[in-house]
Design a protein that fits this description.
- By secondary structure, the protein is mainly alpha-helical.
- It folds into two domains: 61 residues, Glutaredoxin, CATH 3.40.30; 78 residues, no CATH class.
- It contains five helices and four strands.
- The strands form two sheets. The protein has a two-stranded antiparallel sheet with strand order 1-2. Strands 3-4 form a two-stranded parallel sheet.
- Strand 1 and strand 2 form a beta hairpin.
- Helix 4 crosses helix 5.
- The longest helix has 24 residues.
- The C terminus is likely disordered.
- One of its GO terms (biological process) is negative regulation of protein ubiquitination.
- One of its GO terms (molecular function) is thioredoxin-disulfide reductase (NADPH) activity.
């Protein structure tokens, strides 16, 4: 394996880490900041999309409004809004701006009212939490 792993003797730490990151099965990949705050608990797709980590770390953070191909796993497990706007032409940018503004507002309100950290609000806005998924599809 090209990454570090906990020793078997530290399996209780592994269990704690799995709980914090919401790991329910394998394979699973979570990204942590140097201060151990969570960047994302859903990084598996990022490895497939960017195997050389050319956009890491900024490009690996959850998008407020992900492209549908980046949220495929959620289509079967979360409530999703999928916008097909291939024929919208120049309006596609306006649609994405509206969805992003709504997702940001939802994240901000969630964090403010739940006294939560920004990652929790991000989870709510992207569907990793319990409030649903805002997904935009670029059908082209």
């Amino acid at each position: 394996m090209p990454w570090l792993a906990l020793d078997f003797a530290e399996r209780s730490a592994q269990g704690d880490l799995s709980e914090v990151c919401g790991v329910e099965g394998i394979p699973s990949l979570a990204l942590l900041n140097p201060d151990l705050s969570i960047v994302t608990t859903d990084a598996r797709g990022k490895v497939n999309k960017d195997p050389k980590a050319e956009t890491f770390p900024e490009g690996w953070a959850p998008a407020l409004v992900p492209e549908v191909e980046d949220a495929v796993d959620k289509l079967n497990t979360e409530t999703c809004l999928v916008v097909m706007c291939e024929a919208a032409g120049l309006k596609e940018d306006a649609i994405m701006e509206s969805l992003t503004a709504a997702a940001k507002s939802m994240k901000d309100v969630y964090v403010e009212h739940n006294d939560a950290d920004p990652q929790a609000g991000q989870d709510a806005a992207t569907g990793q939490g319990e409030r649903g998924d805002l997904s935009a599809a670029d059908a082209g």
